[in-house]
Amino acid sequence: MAAPIALPRIMRIGGGAVAEIGEVVSSLGLTRPLVVTDAFLVSTGAAEQMIKTLESAGLSPRLFDGTVPDPTTDSLDAGVAAITEHDCDSVIGFGGGSPMDTAKALGILGRQGGQMRDYKAPRNNAGPALPVIAVPTTAGSGSEATQFTVITDSASDEKMLCPGLAFLPIAAVIDYELTVSMPPRLTADTGVDALTHAIEAYVSTKANPFADSLALTAIATIGRVLRRAYTDGTDAQAREQMMLAATQAGIAFSNSSVALVHGMSRPIGAHFHVAHGLSNAMLFPAVTAFSVRAAQSRYADCARALGVATTADSDATAADNLVAALRELCRDVAVPTPKAYGIDKARWDELIPLMAQQALASGSPNNNPLVPTDAEIRDLYAQIYG
Questions:
Q1: Has residue 70 got a pLDDT over 90?
Q2: Helix (H, G, I), strand (E, B) or coil at 343
């Protein structure tokens, strides 16, 4: 069976690539982009520099800095209004996963209208949509190369997965120099997020050889350099390799799928406002331990790529080594449990049934090597609390 593969039409990758954003937008015949970013990148001057670069290329950009962490449906309204007021013909997502996800959502709302809940899974959205150009400033989400966006419904607190080619950026500008200022906590959370993408893409029931090759390469790179980037943010080589690995992992899961970790992670983010990468990291070792026997050889391949097993090890030993290595990595980069993060246990226990229901409804658990029951998901949530 043929695997449907989709990639951005244009990718500029390397140090200093962001200086070429004007040329990229112009080459697509676009002239009036909405630059979607957040208050932090405005405060650093990076957003202003982006606008100047676009204007220097003869373009007419408008800045929208109303992105919020884990974007909500309410946060999109002002962006849709800005698209209409400026008569935008494109959207530039400039920032981490939240600005890029916001940009993707605005791309489809700016062309088709309606509400984001109209576009959530299982609907597959082919378009039309305004073209999106993605410029990531973190090494983790991979959103610059994926056909997904995640938006929280402000009315229900459901973190909605919205899939389809309508959300795939037409271009991605990937400049690792934008990540050098990332603090250790963000470096860790986004780095573990990228590793989750790569491993879930490889063990997913929708895995394919194209995605496999990128996933294994990303796993190997992250295993070598994540701790370096976390310990020393000025390590340019580690930053560059992490940025490329995050994009490779994004391409891998966009053309395969994520699985149970992501299905369970989204409700944690929605209800407790935990950053996406961090909620993935909280779940990653326990969910892998739950799943590993259902695809032992695939997890063993991941262990060997990560450098925690060799071909001399049996698949069973390698798979066990992977679970142990993920636990060790999360300790090394100080991933907190929900309890240590400050989440109230009574509230956590109260929401477990709803979170399990939302996790299953997202569809991602169905891609897991071992498809869990509602009771098993509830048990995993209880296990990880701490």
A1: no
A2: coil
Report which of 219, 192, 384, 180 is spatially closest to residue 277, judged by C-alpha positions: 192
Computed over its alpha carbons, how large is the radius of gyration of the chain?
20
Question: Which of the pair, 2 or 101, is modelled with greater confidence?
Answer: 101
69: number of Cβ within 10 Å: 16
Cβ contacts of 354-359, under 8 Å, gap ≥ 24: 354/267, 354/271, 355/264, 355/267, 355/268, 355/271, 355/381, 356/381, 358/158, 358/159, 358/266, 358/267, 358/270, 359/260, 359/263, 359/264, 359/266, 359/267
In the predicted model, is pLDDT for residue 1 greater than 80? no
- The pair phi, psi for residue 159, each rounded to 5°, is -85, 105
Q: How far is CA 324 from CA 15, 78, 303, 328, in A?
A: 35, 46, 10, 6
Helix axes 260-272, 345-361, angle to 10 degrees: 130
Mean pLDDT of the chain: 96
Evaluate whether 246 touches 352 at the Cβ level (below 8 Å). no
Q: What element of type H or E holds 373?
A: none
**DSSP three-state, residue 207:** coil
Burial class (CB in 10 A: 0-12, 13-18, 19+), 255: buried
Q: Which residues contact 161 (CB under 8 A, 6 or more apart)?
A: 120, 121, 148, 150, 266, 362, 363, 364
73 pLDDT higher than 80: yes
What one-character DSSP code corresponds to residue 26?
Answer: H
Summarize pLDDT for 186-198 with one digit per residue, the tens: 999 999 999 999 9
pTM over 0.90: yes
Rounded CA gap, 69 and 148, in Å?
17
Angstrom distance (rounded) from CA 359 to CA 357 = 5
| Residue 10 clears pLDDT 90, i.e. is over it | yes
Residue type, 66: G
DSSP assignment of 259-271: -HHHHHHHHHHHH
- Which residues are CB-neighbours of 188 under 8 A, at least 6 positions away? 226, 230, 281, 333, 334, 335
| Residues constituting the chain | 386
Residue type, position 142, single letter: G
Question: Quick one: how far is CA 42 from the chain centroid?
Answer: 22
